[in-house]
Automatic annotation (TrEMBL):
GO terms for biological process: rRNA base methylation. This is 25S rRNA (uridine-N(3))-methyltransferase BMT5-like domain-containing protein. Residues 213-244 are annotated as: Disordered. Residues 214-238 have a biased composition (Acidic residues). Residues 21-188 form the 25S rRNA (uridine-N(3))-methyltransferase BMT5-like domain. InterPro entries: BMT5-like, SAM-dependent_MTases_sf. GO terms for cellular component: cytoplasm. SUPFAM superfamilies: S-adenosyl-L-methionine-dependent methyltransferases. One of its GO terms (molecular function) is rRNA (uridine-N3-)-methyltransferase activity.
Length: 261
């Protein structure tokens, strides 16, 4: 009997033939969108930082996405920290054509707003470690994609410079349109209003690949002088924000469900 060749399917930058690792997923709707378009997710690994119970508690909408991903053959992993993912027991021997981190964010801490230098430092540390780990997990010609807001204060993260420090260079910066990914809902994450979306202004997918040249720039200069210290900015436009009680309020029902006393 003649064997049918599988047809390659694309959605934007992503192909069903590529090995794709998705990290820092919220409700897994981005992964599910790709899988649906491909008709198969056997080449995909979709991951979250939080353990499964917390993902369910934060994102009630994850259930159908996770079911769909598993039905289409996706490997789903929880508790994958991008800072050390290259040493993760399942990922350690794997290589990927594309590693995707959409809207990275280090979380929110009471008293800090998105313009605050300490929070920007945390975001930068997260991305620096992510790039270092990701650059060791790419197949030949592979790419790291970070989708990020490029307006102030998010442009203070200096994403490109962080990637350069890990030997990755910018191939392309493409405008990101949510409508190009049917069913995708960008999530705030964090602990307050985790399942809510946030405004997507000036968003781009930054596509990096392994550099063949040494950047002549100083890789990781301190740019703190440029930062705008503003402690009382209550910018509702932020990816994640909330008070301490808001931050931890959600944990009680989860602990009850897990029978933690
Ligand atoms: C603003 S949310 C975006 C969620 C999702 N990528 C989306 O587009 O809807 C930021 C995400 O970064 C994740 N994150 C933060 N630190 C992380 C880490 N060290 N490792 C993996 N994911 C992390 C959070 O769990 C959260 O899901």
């Amino acid at each position: 009997m003649k064997r049918m060749k599988k047809k390659e399917r694309w959605i934007q930058h992503y192909s069903s033939f590529q090995k794709i690792l998705l990290v820092g997923e919220g409700d897994f709707s981005f992964s599910a969108c790709l899988a649906r378009q491909f008709g198969s997710a056997v080449n995909m690994v979709a991951t979250s930082l939080d353990p499964q119970e917390i993902v369910y508690a934060k994102h009630w909408s994850c259930e159908t996405h996770l079911e769909e991903l598993k039905r289409l053959g996706c490997r789903v992993l929880h508790e994958v920290d991008v800072k050390e993912m290259k040493r993760h027991p399942t990922l350690i021997n794997m290589e990927f054509d594309v590693i995707v981190f959409n809207f990275p964010h280090a979380g929110h801490f009471p008293g800090f707003c998105e313009r605050h230098v300490e929070l920007i430092k945390m975001h930068r540390e997260l991305l620096k470690a992510f790039f270092e780990s990701a650059s060791d997990m790419l197949s030949s010609g592979g790419e790291v994609h970070v989708t990020h807001r490029d307006d102030y204060p998010y442009n203070r993260w200096k994403v490109e410079k962080l990637a350069n420090g890990a030997g990755l260079y910018l191939k392309e910066r493409v405008e990101f349109q949510k409508k190009d990914y049917p069913g995708y809902h960008n999530k705030r994450g964090g602990a307050i209003n985790s399942n809510k979306t946030f405004p997507l202004k000036d968003c781009y997918t930054f596509k990096f690949s392994v550099s063949t040249w040494e950047s002549e720039e100083e890789e990781d200069e301190e740019d703190d002088d440029d930062y705008d210290y503003n402690y009382d900015d209550d910018d509702d436009d932020t990816i994640s924000s909330g008070s301490l009680s808001d931050e931890i309020g959600w944990i009680l029902p989860v602990m009850k469900r897990l029978h933690v006393k």
